[in-house]
Specification:
This protein is α+β, with helices and mostly antiparallel strands. The chain folds into four domains: about 1-125, Immunoglobulin-like, CATH 2.60.40.10; about 135-365, Sandwich (Immunoglobulin-like), CATH 2.60.40.10; about 365-515, Chondroitinase Ac, Chain A, domain 3; about 525-710, no CATH class. The chain is about 30% helix and about 25% strand. The protein has 16 helices and 33 strands. Strands 19, 20, 24, 25, 26, 29, 30 and 33 form an eight-stranded antiparallel beta sheet that branches. The protein has a five-stranded antiparallel beta sheet with strand order 21-22-28-32-31, with no helix packed on it. Strands 4-1-5-7 form a four-stranded mixed beta sheet, with no helix packed on it. Strand 29 and strand 30 (about 485) form a beta hairpin. The chain is elongated, with a radius of gyration of 42 Å.
Length: about 750
C-alpha cells in the first residue's frame, strides 16, 4: 500500500535580537510494506543549520501500536551515543561538521521486518561560520591595545559580529566587550590577562573564534589607581566600552567610593541593555570582575555587594528569553562558588533551578543538562514516565537510584531535577517536573514545567558526593516548611568521598555532622508533669477528707457543677470532686505527652538546635493543635461519665482506674522523651502546651459543660424532718421541758427506774 509522508523540518534560528522560524513543506509518496499503516509529518530546514545549537527533528507520526523507528545518518555523526530509536531525533550542539551536507534517514517498521521498513530521508547542510585571516594585537598609547580581526568575511551573511574576550585558566573564553559590528577596537587589558580571543559570528549565531597572546609591553600595562574616575570617563565616551572598562578598572581600584561608582555604573548600564546571549555573557564577566576586584585584596566582599550581585543575576536569568548555554551555566557556578556559604539559601536554590530549566528548553526525551565544578552540581534529565519507575541517574559524581516510584502517568514527560551544593552543610535537592506528554508517538513539550509530587514505594538510594570523615557520625534531614526534620532520610554508609542515603520521599535535604546528645536537656516537661501529679495527689486527699460526710452538693446550678474549674470548689458527694480533679489534670497531662510525641514524629527533637522564639512559626503550633484534638478522645467520654455521677451513678468506678492508667503511661512517656529531647525543642513543647491548656479550658470545657447541663439537672436540696435537729413533735418537747423544771420524785421500790433521754 502507499504511505504519504508529509515532511516538515525546522530549526529555530536565534538571531541577535529576534527569533525566526523558516519552514517549507515537502510531500513524498512511497511504496512500503502493506502491513505498515500511518503517516509522518516533519518540519524541514529551508536554509543551512547552525551546528552550534541543538538540532531537533520532531515528526508528527500517525501509526498503530508496535511500530518501531530508527534514524541513520550519512555521513555518520561524530557522537555515537545519540538515541536513534524514537520517532524524533535530538542532536546536541557541535555534533555535525561545518559546511557538510547530511542525509537524515527515518525508518518505520514492524518488529522483525526491518528489511521491509518504510524509509524517508531529508538532506540538511550545516552553516559555515565567518572566517578571518588572523587576529592581531598591537600596543597603543595610554596603556591601550588595538585588537583587529584581519580579513574577516562570511559566505552566508553580509553582517559579521565581533566580540573580544580573554582566555581564563580553564581555557574558557570570557567576554571583555559587547557584540560589536566593527573591527578594530582600542581597549585597556588587565595585566593578569595573557591571551585574548576574538569571536566572529554571522546573524544565525554560527561562530568561530581566534586566540592570540598579548605582546610584551614596553611600558607598564597596569596604570596606577590615581585619577581612576577621570580615566574611566575618558575611556567610556562610547558606552560600548563600559564593560571592558569596568573589568579593567575593577582590577586596580582601592578606594571604596571609586569601587562603588564602578559598581553602580555597571548596574545602570546593563539595566538599559536588551539581553541576547552575547550581552548576557558580558554581563556575567563584569559581575565576576567586580567580585574579584583588587578592592577586596585587604577586605572581604561585603554582604550587601554579594546580595546585589546574586539578586541581579537572578533577576536577569528570570527574564532571559533565550536558553542559557552550557558555558554560561558553568560560568554562573564559577562566579558563585567562592561565596556559597554566604549566599542566601533560597536565592541560590532559585538560581540553580532556573539555570537547569533554561538549558532544557530544546531538550527531547533521554536528554539532559548538567553543570558541575567538583563542588556544586546542577543536573536535569528528561524522559517519559514509563522510563522513570525504575531508573538511575548520574549527576556529577553523585548518583540517584529509583526502584519503584509512582504518582504520574506513563505518558507524561518528566524532568528529574537534582542539585547539590555546599554551604555550612552539604545540601541537595531532588524534584520531579511534568514538562509534556508522549502518547501515540506524539511528543508535546509544555512551555512551562510544573513540579509534581512523587510517591516513593521503595526507598530511593542516593549516593551524594562530598568530603566526609569515616569516623564521624552524620545525619540527613529534609526541609519541612521552615524547619528541618530527619524523618524519611537515613544515612546508611559514609565514605571519604561520598555518603549513601535511603530516602522515603523527595525534597530538599542536608547532610550534617550528628552531634548526638551534646545538647542541653530541657527539664520543662518533667517539671510540669511533677506539678500536675503532685496537685492531683494532694488535692484528691484534701477533697476526700473534706467531702466524706457530704451527701449532696451545696449548690444546684448544673453548669457550675459540670465545669471543672468551678466544680472543684463545690463540696459534693460520692468522691465527685476528686474524680473531676483527676479528669481535668489527667486530660492536660495527656495533652502534654501527645505534644511531645508529635514533635518526635514531625521534627528531630533529639538533635541539637538553636531554636528560639523568633523562629516559632505557625506550623510548629500544629503539633499542639493535633495533640489537643486527639486528647478529646479521652476527655469527652470521661467528662460524660463524671457528669452522670451527679445523678447517683457510680461511674467513678470506671473513671478513676482509667485516669490512673493514663497518668502512669504519661509519666513513663514524658520521662523518656524529656531525657532524649534537646532544650530548644522542650521550650517549643511547653509553649505549645500552655497555649492549648488555656484554649482547652476557655473553649471546649465550657462547651461540654453547657451541653451536658441541658440534660443533667440537679434539684435544690430541701431538709427533711428526719435531718432537722428540731424534728420532734411539740408535745414531746414541752414534756421534756416540763420535766426539767420539776424535781424528781422518788418512785416506789417495787418499780424499776428507767431513764430515757433522746440523744
Amino acid at each position: 500500500m502507499k504511505i504519504y509522508l508529509k515532511i516538515l523540518i525546522s530549526q529555530a534560528m536565534n538571531l541577535l535580537f529576534q527569533k525566526k522560524v523558516l519552514e517549507m513543506e515537502l510531500f513524498i509518496h512511497l511504496e512500503v510494506n502493506a502491513e505498515i499503516k500511518g503517516s509522518v509529518k516533519i518540519k524541514p530546514f529551508q536554509s543551512e543549520i547552525n551546528n552550534q545549537k541543538i538540532i531537533n527533528v520532531i515528526p508528527e507520526v500517525e501509526a498503530y501500536t508496535g511500530v518501531l523507528f530508527k534514524w541513520t545518518f550519512n555521513p555518520a555523526l561524530e557522537n555515537g551515543n545519540i538515541s536513534n530509536t524514537y520517532p524524533f531525533i535530538y542532536i546536541p550542539p557541535n555534533n555535525l561538521k561545518y559546511g557538510v551536507n547530511y542525509q537524515f534517514n527515518l525508518q518505520m517498521y514492524e518488529a522483525g521486518l526491518e528489511d521491509s521498513a518504510a524509509t524517508v530521508f531529508i538532506s540538511v547542510t550545516t552553516d559555515i561560520p565567518p572566517e578571518c585571516t588572523s587576529f592581531n594585537i598591537t600596543e597603543d598609547t595610554g596603556g591601550k591595545y588595538i585588537l583587529t580581526g584581519v580579513g574577516c568575511n562570511s559566505d552566508t551573511s553580509l553582517i559579521i559580529i565581533y566580540q573580544y574576550g580573554f582566555v581564563n585558566a580553564k581555557n574558557a573564553i570570557i567576554p571583555l566587550t559587547l557584540p560589536l559590528y566593527t573591527t578594530p577596537v582600542d581597549i585597556k587589558i588587565p595585566s593578569k590577562i595573557d591571551t585574548l580571543a576574538l569571536i566572529v559570528c554571522d546573524l544565525t549565531g554560527t561562530c568561530r573564534y581566534y586566540i592570540s597572546d598579548v605582546p610584551v609591553s614596553q611600558n607598564s600595562r597596569q596604570l596606577d589607581d590615581t585619577d581612576i574616575l577621570v580615566n574611566f570617563a575618558a575611556d567610556t565616551v562610547d558606552s560600548d566600552y563600559i564593560p571592558s572598562s569596568i573589568i579593567y578598572y575593577a582590577g586596580i581600584v582601592t578606594e571604596e567610593a571609586t569601587y562603588n561608582y564602578l559598581f553602580d555604573t555597571n548596574f545602570e548600564f546593563f539595566s538599559k541593555e536588551e539581553f541576547d546571549s552575547f550581552t548576557f555573557s558580558t554581563f556575567l564577566s563584569t559581575m565576576q570582575a567586580l567580585l574579584e576586584s583588587s578592592y577586596f585584596v585587604n577586605t572581604t566582599v561585603s554582604d550587601n555587594i554579594l546580595a546585589n550581585v546574586t539578586l541581579s543575576i537572578l533577576d536577569v536569568i528570570s527574564n532571559f528569553t533565550i536558553s542559557i548555554t552550557q558555558e554560561q551555566g558553568d560560568f554562573i557556578i564559577e562566579i558563585l562558588a567562592p561565596y556559597l556559604s554566604r549566599i542566601d539559601f533560597d536565592v541560590l536554590r532559585e538560581i540553580y533551578e532556573i539555570v537547569a530549566e533554561s538549558q532544557m528548553t530544546d531538550v527531547l526525551l533521554d536528554g539532559y543538562a548538567s553543570c558541575y565544578d567538583g563542588v556544586s552540581t546542577i543536573y536535569r534529565y528528561r524522559n517519559s514516565g514509563d522510563s522513570f519507575r525504575n531508573t538511575s541517574i548520574l549527576a556529577g559524581n553523585s548518583s540517584i537510584s529509583f526502584y519503584n516510584i509512582s504518582g504520574f502517568n506513563d505518558t507524561d514527560v518528566l524532568d528529574i531535577y537534582f542539585t547539590k551544593f555546599a554551604q555550612n552543610d552539604d545540601f541537595f535537592e531532588i524534584t520531579f517536573y511534568v514538562t509534556g506528554s508522549f502518547e501515540d508517538y506524539a511528543l508535546v513539550l509544555n512551555g512551562e514545567s510544573n513540579a509534581t509530587a512523587i510517591t516513593v514505594e521503595d526507598n530511593v538510594i542516593a549516593q551524594i558526593e562530598g568530603n566526609f570523615n569515616n569516623g564521624t557520625n552524620y545525619k540527613c534531614e529534609y526541609l519541612d516548611g521552615n524547619s528541618w526534620s530527619s524523618s524519611g532520610c537515613n544515612v546508611e554508609d559514609v565514605n571519604e568521598n561520598y555518603v549513601t542515603l535511603t530516602l522515603s520521599h523527595l525534597s530538599t535535604f542536608r547532610i550534617q555532622v550528628d552531634e548526638g546528645k551534646s545538647c542541653d536537656v530541657g527539664a520543662g516537661p518533667i517539671a510540669t508533669m511533677s506539678v500536675i501529679i503532685f496537685l492531683m495527689i494532694f488535692l484528691i486527699i484534701i477533697f476526700v477528707l473534706s467531702d466524706k460526710k457530704v451527701d449532696h452538693p451545696s449548690v444546684s446550678n448544673s453548669f457550675l457543677l459540670l465545669y471543672p474549674l468551678t466544680s472543684v470548689f463545690i463540696q459534693q458527694a460520692k468522691l465527685r470532686r476528686a474524680v473531676v480533679l483527676m479528669q481535668i489534670l489527667t486530660s492536660e497531662l495527656l495533652m502534654l505527652t501527645l505534644i511531645g510525641a508529635f514533635h518526635n514524629h514531625f521534627d528531630s527533637p533529639e538533635d541539637k538546635t538553636d531554636n528560639d522564639f523568633d523562629n516559632y512559626y505557625g506550623f510548629q503550633l500544629s503539633r499542639g493543635a493535633a495533640a489537643w484534638a486527639l486528647t478529646q478522645a479521652f476527655t469527652i467520654p470521661i467528662f460524660i461519665l463524671n457528669a452522670f455521677i451527679l445523678k447517683g451513678k457510680p461511674y467513678y468506678l470506671i473513671t478513676i482506674p482509667v485516669c490512673i492508667f493514663i497518668t502512669v503511661g504519661c509519666f513513663c512517656g514524658l520521662i523518656v522523651m524529656t531525657v532524649f529531647y534537646c532544650l530548644g525543642w522542650t521550650e517549643y513543647w511547653i509553649t505549645n502546651w500552655l497555649i492549648f491548656l488555656l484554649f482547652d479550658i476557655a473553649t471546649l470545657e465550657i462547651i461540654y459543660s453547657l451541653v451536658l447541663s441541658l440534660f443533667i439537672k440537679v434539684d435544690a436540696y430541701t431538709p427533711t424532718e428526719k435531718d432537722s435537729p428540731t424534728s420532734k413533735p411539740k408535745k414531746d418537747i414541752d414534756k421534756d421541758l416540763s420535766t426539767r423544771r420539776q424535781p424528781e420524785e422518788k418512785e416506789e421500790s417495787e418499780y424499776e427506774i428507767i431513764v430515757h433521754q433522746d440523744l
